[in-house]
Write a structure and sequence with these properties.
Structural class: alpha+beta
Largest sheet: 8 strands, mixed
Radius of gyration: 22 Å
């Protein structure tokens, strides 16, 4: 198993030539990706760990005996787990060994799975027949606010351009503690929330359905091995604690949030739902798409400084499809490289006070907006607080309507290889009456 160079990110080779599993041209899931998810099938309701390859899923519980490397030989039962928490906890050596083994057994030149018809019939299932689930038991969820363009846009709307960024913003990755219980996997519909709003500051608040329902285009990373309470994660070790990344829609009830957020921050305006794409793309799969880190001025304090590249070229898109629309309309094209603070900085800051992180914790980027209006990652920005309605085939929108479906996608592409995350979709159901 020791040939760890085998097909690892060999971007110049065609997808179909590298695996015996058919990978259609332009697929999000070539052998260079191998993202992790949790699934079940109609004939087996048990939640299992799988990796996406082409249009299929490889059931790792069915092939666990093939993981015979020095780390996993004694840990094969980790692939029988119904979530990824325990696997995440094993750390980078186990993750790398898993990736190398998977690329070997899926290779067109390896017979162990390719020529075992019985095992193949058990281990490979069609994605179209699978039901996907949340990838981990998320103990804690933190949402950052790390796009300078987004923070500037929102600050300009509510405080004016001269006070757009708060005094702390350029010195630390601002964040808040979110609600893990309402994080859901793609395809789960979410109901428009009800709550207090104060549309007229001269009048008392009112109670009712949110009128300013919004999406937020984000990405989020899952943590691997944790740290002990009271012992921060140094920034030069932060990468060893980051397992992989998802596309995320952090739904927002703008009118509820505006009324409630002073002085303690977002609460009911955010906690009603957060949607994740079904697949976690590992940091190793994203290696070829690293970019130089953003220039940060002023220079951050020493505990937030790192020289290794940890910004990534991940193309992101948002589309909206109304109930009466035949096709979704693209409303945003952005990129993770627009982030000012890196994931390493976020994790180092999160733990610098001694806060203990645990395997399967979720940490989100905050809304990812670029410099141009078509790259703004929320309706709040795209329609500029409702002042610039957007045209759709079924009429104008300032915010989301009932029964709108929001579709977020992400991918990296280089040398003919495309690495994707699956669709992050969610439908807005009407509020309870």
């Amino acid at each position: 198993w020791g040939n760890n160079k085998l097909v690892v990110c060999s971007a110049s080779q065609s997808n179909s030539a590298m695996s015996f599993v058919n990978v259609p041209q332009g697929s999000d899931f070539p052998i260079q990706n191998l993202p992790f998810g949790i699934f079940s099938t109609p004939d087996n309701a048990r939640h299992r760990i799988g990796v996406a390859i082409g249009e299929e899923i490889l059931d790792l519980s069915a092939v666990k005996s093939l993981f015979t490397g020095p780390v996993l030989a004694s840990q094969q039962d980790v692939f029988d787990e119904p979530t990824l928490n325990r696997f995440m906890s094993l750390g980078k050596a186990a993750w790398h060994e898993t990736r190398v083994t998977l690329q070997r057994i899926l290779s067109k030149d390896e017979a162990a799975l390719r020529d075992n018809v019985s095992l193949r019939s058990k281990a490979l299932v069609q994605q179209s027949s699978a039901t996907m689930y949340l990838q981990a038991d998320i103990g804690d969820y933190t949402d950052f606010y790390s796009s300078r363009e987004h923070a500037t846009n929102v600050g300009t709307m509510f405080r004016g351009a001269d006070k757009a960024l708060m005094p702390n913003w350029l010195h630390l990755p601002v964040g808040y503690h979110g609600r893990a219980s309402s994080v859901v996997v793609a395809g789960t519909p979410l109901r428009r929330p009800r709550g207090q709003q104060c549309p007229n500051p001269d009048q008392p608040p009112v109670y009712g359905p949110c009128k300013l329902m919004d999406f937020e285009l984000e990405m989020a990373f899952f943590t691997g091995p944790g740290n002990k309470l009271g012992e921060p994660i140094p920034i030069d070790q932060a990468q060893d604690h980051i397992f992989g990344v998802c596309v995320m829609n952090d739904w927002s009830a703008r009118d509820i949030q505006k009324w409630e957020y002073v002085p303690l921050g977002p609460f009911l305006g955010k906690s009603f739902g957060t949607t994740l794409s079904p697949w976690i793309v590992t940091m190793e799969a994203l290696e070829p798409f690293r970019l130089p880190n953003p220039v940060q001025d002023p220079t951050p304090l020493p505990y937030l400084q790192h020289s290794d590249e940890f910004s990534f070229d991940i193309n992101l898109q948002v589309a909206i499809q109304g109930e009466a629309m035949a096709e979704p309309k693209v409303v945003c094209n952005s990129n993770l490289k627009n982030m000012y603070w890196t994931m390493k900085q976020q994790l180092a800051h999160h733990s610098v006070n001694g806060c203990n992180v645990r395997p399967g914790d979720l940490m989100a980027s905050g809304t990812i907006s670029g410099k141009t209006p078509d790259s703004f990652g929320s309706m709040l920005e795209l329609c500029w607080r409702g002042e610039k309605p957007m045209d759709f085939p079924d009429g104008q929108r300032k915010f989301l309507r009932d029964n709108d479906t929001v579709i977020m996608t992400g991918h990296c592409e280089r040398d003919g290889v495309r690495i994707g995350f699956g669709r992050c979709t969610g439908k807005v159901l009407p509020a309870l009456q």
